[in-house]
Amino acid sequence: xxxxxxxxxxxSIPTLLFIALVIFLLLQLAPGDPMAQVPLTVxxxxxxxxxxxxxxxxxxxxxxxxxxxxxxxIEPQVFIDWLFGTGLTDGAQxxxxxxxxxxxxxxxxxxxxxxxxxxxLAYVVAFLIAIPVGIYSAYKQYSSFDQVGTFITMIGxxxxxxxTGPLLIVIFSVWLGWFPSIYDTTHExxxxxxxxxxxxxxxxxxxVLALQVTAQxxxxxxxxxxxxxxxxxVRTARAKxxxxxxxxxxxxxxxxxxxxxxxxxxxIPAIFGGAIITEVVFxxxxxxxxxxxxxxANDMPMVMTLTFIFALLIVVFNIIADVLxxxxxxxxxxx
Length: 335
What we know:
- The protein has helices at residues 2-29, 44-53, 60-84, 104-139, 144-158, 161-175, 192-229, 232-239, 244-282, 287-296, 300-328.
- By secondary structure, the chain is mostly helical.
- The chain has a domain at 106-296: MetI-like fold (Orthogonal Bundle), CATH 1.10.3720.
- The protein is globular.
């Protein structure tokens, strides 16, 4: 298993490099100029110097190579400097945002906690709801609970976040007045009252993100459980007199999780993609809103870095899903 994991990590390097190249070329073809927002009173020679300072005068392959060195070599050293107090990157050129003129990764680190609070809690809520619902729906197939669950999951599949978000705002903020419609990222939790407000402002963004993940995972969980409940080993376990709870939660659940683990692993980067829309709707000052702002400002280093981070998450969690196959099923071996 360790050899397989190392081999997958090594093979993922050219994949990530190819993804980075494709993203960079697509951004090069995109219309827009970061100097378009410069006032018309700025002389042309000053604009040209500004373009050179931003690295816009170099050929595309030079810009791409510079970004690769900065992202894969300099930024990890910046993290080491922060961790151990060393000075490996003194005077080194980092990935700089065209919009804010500050290091991109510093801005990402500042925004990431807000996204992780919402996305992480949404994933935990979705997982805690989806697995039990999928198990019970399969065990009580065609029951009233199963039919209601199927109806709700179809709604979760069908309605996108850009519709669910405003709908919840209209219902719970405008009509009922229960929750705030805007997420206050400057809010500090220093008392029980402030903690209650923090919970209130997180409920709607978490509900929007958790709805789709819950629908997806619960349906896969139900289908996998139904497939395993018909297997011979289940009849054998019941014939030996094992309690129904042990048959269901020990034998059937473990085998069912083998196919569901891919959905669960890939749902993590997917929920980050859904957070882009959700953060814009609820004004969450996270990396999703940062990406949208960078797109409107033609901030190519910021867009390049954020989109590559999303691609990196997908590759990493694909590897994690493959490794978990062998953990859940001893019969699976990667030789």
